[in-house]
TrEMBL record:
SUPFAM superfamilies attached to this UniProt entry: Winged helix' DNA-binding domain (SSF46785)
Keywords for this protein: DNA-binding, Transcription, Transcription regulation
Taxonomic lineage of the native organism: Bacteria, Bacillati, Actinomycetota, Actinomycetes, Kitasatosporales
Species assigned in the record: Kitasatospora saccharophila
Protein name: HTH arsR-type domain-containing protein
Annotated ranges, domain HTH arsR-type: 15-110
Amino acid sequence: MTLDHDQDCPGLLPEPPAAELQLVSVLHALADPTRLRIVADLAGAGGDELNCLAFELPVTKSTMTHHFRVLREAGLIRQHRRGTSKMNTLRTDDLSARFPGLLEAVLTALPRCPKGPAEIAAPAVGAATPAAAAR
């Protein structure tokens, strides 16, 4: 169940309450490299709000909208409208209360990846796939 739980912020988009966050939904949202990059960028913002346009992602606008919706519906981010912009914040406190240590573990593991989320999301043109390399 999603609801606009803050009547003081009429531009707040629907999101699940903290008590209803589901681990499967959170992990599914984090499994995509583009969404993982969005979460990492929001974590790096230190709690500040970021406009959707602040993210330099190698995807179309409609795909970007889809990724933000998946993150919001999973409960990872909070979005609200400010004029014509959608502002985003990471729901750090809600996630830490519901799944202690999960977000920190995911974010800590990122630097150990051989490639950053941007390279994982968009492989280099002409790069050999594992199947092609095996031939």
